[in-house]
Design goal:
Length: 545
């Protein structure tokens, strides 16, 4: 009895009340550690931003103009939202960040159409995919086959349409590209990229507004605004490709969000914040130009984003490495996402849980979790042995780097997908079985839609890690500097972290203080946008649940 009194005395005071001291100390410790981490990250970002922007080189009058026209109105409006209209504040920050995120995505899409596929190649791919889908539909309607046969037919049809039989049968895509007459490049992109986006916009608006007329108007307006760029774009000094991409990738999500805010009627005043900032930027530019105030001597400018490496610091840029990172991430996503999600589905839905096979599955799951903590350099050595030595692929090409990084993030994708699938309530599975659904029908129509937000969140976070890895790229021979952007997945490339590593080794102070800081800032912005997207997806679907 005395032992019981001694053990409970640590939790209860002399008066029998529960002691909250340990809980308060634990809470204070966690809060302090979080604040310290955020402070250190903030200090690092400020340090990098100061080196990349060099604010001390600007005239004090220039900074005063920026504060008076841009910063001060934005701060005053933000404080008003915080104190009076919290909902308008959420709308304001979303409306301010959405165009920035959409512009970054538009840059990635532009890189794809400039360096990976041409408009005519995209047209051939779309037509080949439509024909392949039609062939699969015909097979499904004419023959009651099992899933294995349908999968085999799908692989064969897709191979014939995209790849063909080397040396024997050309692919359908190659036959389309060899036609003597093809539509002009703007019309090809308009018909195979803009029109599907317009149809998707019309479907979304029709579903949200429950009006066929509203959906048709939204689809027609999207296609018409993009088609206008074929003529008006060159007249305004903008290429038609840039106009089409900006209209669909930036204009569509911004327009849909604004329409949703107006139709909802809540927080409409929050849309004023981006307008106030835009008006302030224009006013600041006019005042600065008229008064002749000198701005900061920034390293991170448009020339840095569009130029290649140079021995002269002021002429050095990150564009080829940026293109290489985008192409590498495409390979990583294509290689890791289907395999990781498929493995997670098998382990959670199909793998036996008892007996000898159950023990083997448990051992596999333990090893997958352990592989997520293996140092990245080990995966670099694995990629070198697997793809370069055994696969006889050329070292330093995009597909080798992408497949190596895909091996690195594959355990993370599998584990995150398993957690998302495990989070789907069993009652929903049992309800589907009770209605006569098969195992695969239950997984496809019940489990995957419910788990997809968590799967996408984990995948995006894994891709964020992938884009910042350097050690595996060093192991597979990725070049330190590439002055020409890769034009195919079998071309030599350099990635942003690899380029930053090479800049850090140069002896000129301008490289590791100015150019390196600008590159680090670009990489951090990309990582923050990817992580922010994952957080928004998680929060959105948590509120919906």
């Amino acid at each position: 009895m005395a032992t019981t009194d001694e053990s409970t005395g640590a939790w209860f005071g002399a008066d029998g009340q529960v002691s909250q001291l340990r809980g308060l100390l634990f809470k204070a410790g966690c809060l302090g550690a979080t604040l310290l981490t955020l402070f250190l990250v903030f200090v690092f970002l400020v340090y990098v931003a100061v080196d990349a922007i060099e604010p001390g080189t600007a005239d004090p009058a220039w900074w005063a103009t920026v504060v008076a026209t841009v910063a001060l109105p934005a701060v005053v409006l933000s404080l008003y939202y915080y104190r009076s209209e919290p909902r308008a504040g959420e709308v304001a920050y979303t409306a301010l960040g959405l165009p920035v995120a959409a512009a970054l995505l538009a840059g990635g899409v532009g890189i794809v159409f400039r360096h990976i596929v041409s408009p005519h190649e995209w047209l051939a791919l779309v037509i080949a995919a439509i024909i392949a889908y039609g062939a699969l539909e015909v097979h499904g309607r004419t023959r009651d086959a099992g899933a294995l046969e349908r999968g085999a037919v799908g692989v064969v049809v897709l191979g014939l349409t995209i790849v063909g039989v080397p040396g024997l049968v050309p692919s359908l895509r190659a036959l389309i590209l060899s036609l003597p007459v093809l539509p002009m490049a703007p019309l090809s992109l308009l018909g195979t990229f803009v029109v599907p986006v317009g149809i998707a916009v019309g479907w979304y608006v029709r579903r949200a507004r429950e009006s066929q007329r509203a959906g048709s108007i939204a689809a027609g307006a999207t296609i018409a605004a993009a088609a206008l760029g074929v003529v008006a774009g060159p007249l305004a000094g903008v290429s038609w490709t840039t106009w089409l991409i900006l209209t669909t990738v930036v204009g569509v999500p911004v327009g849909l969000y604004v329409e949703r805010v107006f139709s909802g009627g809540e927080g409409v005043s929050g849309l004023a914040l981006p307008l106030v900032i835009a008006a302030g930027v224009v006013a600041c530019a006019v005042v600065v130009d008229a008064a002749g105030f000198a701005g900061p001597n920034v390293w991170l400018d448009w020339e840095f984003l569009t130029a290649a490496h140079s021995r002269t610091p002021r002429e050095a840029g990150i564009y080829p490495a940026l293109v290489g990172s985008v192409m590498m991430i495409i390979v990583v996503a294509i290689a890791a996402f289907p395999v990781g999600v498929g493995a997670a589905i098998y382990l959670e839905e199909y793998a036996p849980s008892g007996g000898l096979l159950g023990s083997v599955v448990e051992l596999i799951e333990i090893n997958i979790a352990n592989l997520a903590g293996v140092p990245s350099v080990v995966y670099g050595l694995l990629g070198l042995a697997l793809f370069v030595k055994a696969g006889a692929l050329q070292p330093g090409i995009v597909i080798v780097g992408g497949l190596t990084i895909a091996l690195l993030i594959l355990p993370i994708v599998i584990v995150s997908a398993q957690e998302a699938i495990r989070g789907v309530p069993d009652s929903q599975r049992q309800a589907a079985y009770g209605m006569g659904a098969t195992k695969w029908q239950t997984v496809r129509t019940v489990v995957l839609p419910r788990a997809m937000p968590g799967i996408l969140t984990g995948t995006i976070l894994a891709l964020g890690r992938a884009i910042g890895e350097t050690a595996p790229l060093l192991m597979v021979g990725v070049a330190a500097v590439v002055r020409i952007s890769p034009t195919s997945f079998f071309g030599l490339f350099s990635a942003m972290p690899r380029q930053l590593y090479s800049w850090a080794q140069l002896a000129k102070p301008d490289f590791y203080h100015g150019v390196l800081a600008a590159g680090v800032l670009v990489l951090l912005i990309v990582l923050l946008m990817m992580n922010g997207t994952a957080i928004l997806l998680r929060n959105k679907y948590q509120r919906r649940d």
